[in-house]
Each structure stands twice: as structure tokens, then as C-alpha cells.
Amino acid sequence: MTNTPPPFRTGLGFDVHRLVEGRDLWLCGVKIPHNLGLLGHSDADVAIHALCDALLGAVALRDIGYHFPDTDPAYKGADSKNLLRATVSLLAEKGWALGNADITICAEKPKINPHIPQMQSVLAEILGVEPDRVSIKATTTEKLGYTGRMEGISAFATALVYHP
Ligand code: MG
Q1: Is the pTM of this model over 0.85?
Q2: Could you tell me the distance, in angstroms and rounded to a whole number, from the CA of residue 31 to the centre of ligand 1?
Q3: From ligand 1's centre to the CA of 102, what distance in Å?
Q4: How much distance in Å is there from the Cα of 3 to the middle of ligand 1?
Q5: Domain residues of the chain, as ranges?
Q6: pLDDT tens digits, one per residue of 38-69
């Protein structure tokens, strides 16, 4: 019996943003053609926000709102890819690297599947891993609830991090 902690951790992230007219729709760092976009202080990339929370959660470094507050003008209109880069740096400072991530986007519309390969390569490049370590999945909620009514899009993410 030893008290040495294991060299890996897992984390969970969840986020929701409201769909509105007059905004671009950004998901996993990719601009998706759609008549509605997500509302937020930053570019409101709900999938990247969930991923950041999964990474921070894995190492108990609080959450995305703690590090990048939506009251801070510095993050107004922020490209969430930069928030993800900063999150990766926070983990790297403590010696943690990404093993794999798994993201589920819940949206009634638009169709996400055609964009998944591009999303994987965008995120993998930021995370410094091969695209096959970044899984992105899409689902609807069968027209139920706020995602079904197209009032918003939600995303879940898990991540495994390890000490190389
Ligand atoms: Mg968010």
C-alpha cells in the first residue's frame, strides 16, 4: 500500500449557451454556417468551454469562469481557441499532458457530423496530440427540452490527463 497518487486523472465538463440571431456559430473552433449563433461574452464556443472545464476539472484547477471571467473586458469576443491554449498551459505548468478527450455536442440543428473531421484537427493542433485522441460526437435531444426547441446548444466533455 502506497500513498503515491496515480499518474493520470479524469475530468468532466458541461456547458450551455443560448442560440440567437445575429451571431456566428462556433463549435470546436470551427465556424459553422447556420442562421443562428451562440450568445456569450466570448465567441460562446460551448464545446471548447466544456473541454476546458474537463481539463481543469481533471487537475482540480477550478473552472473556465474562474480563470477567464465573463466580467473581464479582456475576454469580450474572445476566440475560445485562445482560452483552450491558456488552459493547456495551466495544466502543462503543473506537468500534466492530455491523454484523450471525448466531447458530445447536443444540438437539434444544424447537422454537426460533416464538420467533425475539421473540428478534430483544429482541437488536436491546439492540444498537441493526434486527431484520433480527440473524439467529437453529436446528438439531438429528440426535439425535447431547450436544445430540442433550438433555444440553445449544450456540450459535455471528458478528458484524461497524465504525467508524461
Ligand atoms: Mg460557456
Answers
A1: yes
A2: 16
A3: 17
A4: 36
A5: 8-162
A6: 999 999 999 999 999 999 999 999 999 999 98
Q: What is the rounded CA–CA span in Å between residue 69 and residue 48?
A: 15
Spacing, Cα 2 to ligand 1 middle (Å): 39
Q: How far apart are the first and last CA of the chain?
A: 23
Which residues is 157 bridged to in the sheet?
13, 103
CA-derived radius of gyration, the chain: 16
CA distance 98 to 120: 14
* CATH superfamily, with its number, for domain 8-162: 2-C-methyl-D-erythritol 2,4-cyclodiphosphate synthase (3.30.1330.50)
For 139-150, how does the pLDDT look when each residue is reduced to its tens digit (9 = 90+)? 999 999 999 999
Q: Between the CA of residue 17 and those of 26, 93, 117, what are the distances in Å?
A: 11, 30, 23
Please state, for a pLDDT cut of 70, what percent of the chain lies above it.
99
Q: Cβ of 151: how many Cβ atoms within 10 Å?
A: 14
| Residue 1 predicted with pLDDT over 80 | no
